[in-house]
Specification:
With about 325 residues, the chain is an alpha/beta fold. It is built from eleven helices and nine strands. It has two domains: about 200 residues, HUPs (Rossmann fold, 3-Layer(aba) Sandwich); about 100 residues, Pantoate--beta-alanine Ligase, Chain: A,domain 2, CATH 3.30.1300. The relative contact order is 0.13. Bound molecules: pantoate (PAF).
Length: about 325
């Protein structure tokens, strides 16, 4: 395990990135230097580990950020309750070979308090997860925009008292940022933000990581007791039921998948739709085989916990 270097200010992060890239110099992966950023709110689990592994495999320098972003919480109690486990997180990040960890405090990210100007997630941010959490995705996009700026390897490093005198500004550097497919709506919005607002980072989605019982990895799973955990597995069963139909060339029977979830009394479905993976617009699939890839998307309350999950639906022709 390597111990990642922890930076608490944006200026120190910029200097450390320039230094790390300069140190890689000629040993660049695939000919050009590259930097991978993995934004997180900490409380890391195997789903995050998959993001780190993807970033590590593709980039010369890997930066993870750990920042619990108050702007994306609607309920102040939720924000207080959010687990803060930096020591354990650093262990996982070290094991994953992450080079630099950016762990700012709130005053570093929002020096003037909550920002007046924010990025609007628009209509796409008001559906599904956004319907029950007004402003949530504006908060996510605003902090992701800031994190993408802080870690951008193509901006010149800000002077810092801790910068090494040998740190040289890097030449052209490929810049990627990694997000979990588990938060499908967040990923779709971040992709749109990067495209619509001309960010210089490529946005990479990383597949959902599932436990052996099929449950998607989430920091909320620790709040499920054994009975609710067993009940929650109906969600992935319903998703895989649809995926099997689609890969066999049959129309996805969403009503039957919803009925399957309904058989589990401990699970209360919030939404379950088949959508376009980029726009999250619902698709009319009634008795219609899919012609292009789609996404089955759901959210449900299982006892004290609200869970989200999704699965790509690949029609046989599109998959080939
Ligand atoms: O997915 C998360 O953990 C957060 O929403 C993110 C992208 C780190 C922004 O705070």
């Amino acid at each position: 395990m390597t111990t990642p270097r922890v930076l608490h200010t944006a200026a120190d992060l910029k200097a450390a990135i320039a230094e790390a890239l300069a140190a890689k110099g000629g040993a660049a992966k695939n000919g050009a230097l590259s930097l991978g950023l993995v934004p997180t709110m900490g409380a890391l689990h195997q789903g995050h580990r998959a993001l780190m592994d993807a970033a590590r495999a593709e980039n010369d320098v890997v930066v993870a950020s750990v920042f619990v972003n108050p702007l994306q919480f609607n309920d102040p109690q939720d924000l207080d309750r959010y687990p803060r486990t930096l020591e354990a997180d650093l262990q996982l990040l070290g094991d994953a070979g992450v080079d630099l960890v950016f762990a700012p405090d709130e005053a570093e990210v929002y020096p003037g308090g909550a920002p007046l100007v924010r990025i609007s997630a628009g209509e796409l941010g008001s559906r599904y997860e956004g319907a029950s959490r007004p402003g949530h995705f504006d908060g996510v996009l605003t902090v992701v925009a800031k994190l993408l700026h802080y870690a951008s390897p193509t901006a010149s490093p800000t002077a810092s008292p801790t910068a090494s005198p040998t740190a040289a500004p890097p030449g052209p550097v490929r810049y990627r940022a990694y997000f979990g497919q588990k938060d499908a709506q967040q990923l779709a919005l971040i992709r749109r933000m990067a495209a619509d607002l001309s960010f210089n980072a490529e946005i990479v989605g990383v597949a959902v990581v599932r436990a052996p019982d099929g449950l998607a990895e989430s920091s909320r799973n620790i709040f499920l007791d054994p009975e609710h955990r067993r009940a929650a597995t109906v969600l992935s069963r319903a998703l895989f039921f649809l995926a099997e139909q689609v890969s066999a060339g049959a129309p996805p029977d969403l009503a039957a998948a919803i009925a399957l979830v309904g058989e589990e009394p401990l699970v209360e479905l919030d939404y379950f739709d088949i959508v376009d993976p980029w726009t999250l617009q619902p698709l009319d699939t009634v008795e219609r085989p899919l012609e292009k890839p789609a996404l089955a998307l759901l959210a449900a309350r299982v006892g004290p916990v609200r869970l989200i999950d999704n699965l790509p639906l690949e029609p046989a022709a599109a998959a080939g």
